[in-house]
Amino acid sequence: MQLGPHHFSDPPVFLAPMAGVSDRPFRLLARRMGASAAVSEMVTSQQNLWDSAKSRHRLDHAAEPSPRIVQLLGNEPGALAEAARENVARGADIIDLNLGCPAKKVCSRAAGSALMGDTGLVRELLQALTENTGVPVTLKMRLGLDAERMNAETIAGIAAEAGIAMLTVHGRTRAAGYRGAADYDAIARVVAATALPVLANGDIRGMEDARRALARTGATGVMIGRGAQGRPWLPGRIRAALAGEPLPAEPGPAEIAALMREHVAALHRQYGPHQGVRIARKHLGWYLEQLGRGEAATRALRAELFALEDAGEQLRRLEAIIPSGDSPADDSGRAA
């Protein structure tokens, strides 16, 4: 797959943009472990909000390998184009527009997946981006607002006319949120309706899920979101398997424990000791599920780690973790 000057081996496997999850430390891990690309957390197009600590961190792409993909959130063409230009000046290689977020606080501002209800505005936004950025522009969307208003095929046509380089389609509507199963047949209809490369997204938690998604949809590649939480190695392993490359070993408990410590230390550096400790907790919870220690032991260790408030103490406790000899999780997320 080719996006402007950027080539991705087929089939590409991207890490999805996830607010509060796919920050720079997590993206760096996923890329190092073989993901084709890692999309940033969504960044608002309202530049007057960029002085907040949250936005400053989301605008930080230091040391990230190319291509750096920044996802923008907004509903005003001029502001979106200006935000895109500013992000390109800061190192973005590709700009992605968010038409997929189903969160109420986003949709209530007529942004994210709510935009799918206004195809005229979608056309204006996409044209503003493609005509003003000078880099490839991609689009991530859902199937539509709800089961009665599924218009992803229509928006795919608008995207192609506007010069969009690639689509990602999450196989649920805005109304569905994350309930039910991803509708791969609906994604297949989008694939059939466009000549653009399409990444299938939704319910991809292991290699067989990825193979099933590609077979059912005919998509160019896949994008992995929640399945990679606590498993930054997953996109890379899936990419290698699909490409027929030697498969990286599934990390065992010792490797996962070491990765936990590395990730937490990176979060402390990124956010500072106070905020870093708190942000690390959710990641630790996901990692602990991969150690294969059993439900009771995992619950006790999670409670102990979540109670810590000091960065040094958090790292020291992680250093003291001795991986068990139990089987690590398999690529579906269940204990092997």
From TrEMBL:
Annotated residues for binding of FMN: P17, M18, A19, Q71, K140, H170, G225, R226
Active-site residues from the entry: C101 (proton donor)
Matching InterPro entries: Aldolase_TIM (IPR013785), DUS-like_FMN-bd (IPR035587), DUS_fam (IPR001269), DusB-like (IPR004652), tRNA-dHydroUridine_Synthase_C (IPR024036), tRNA_hU_synthase_CS (IPR018517)
The protein's required cofactors: FMN
GO molecular function, one term: flavin adenine dinucleotide binding
Occurrences of domain DUS-like FMN-binding (ranges): 15-320
EC number: 1.3.1.-
Role this protein plays: Catalyzes the synthesis of 5,6-dihydrouridine (D), a modified base found in the D-loop of most tRNAs, via the reduction of the C5-C6 double bond in target uridines.
The protein, known as: tRNA-dihydrouridine synthase
Organism per entry: Thioalkalivibrio halophilus
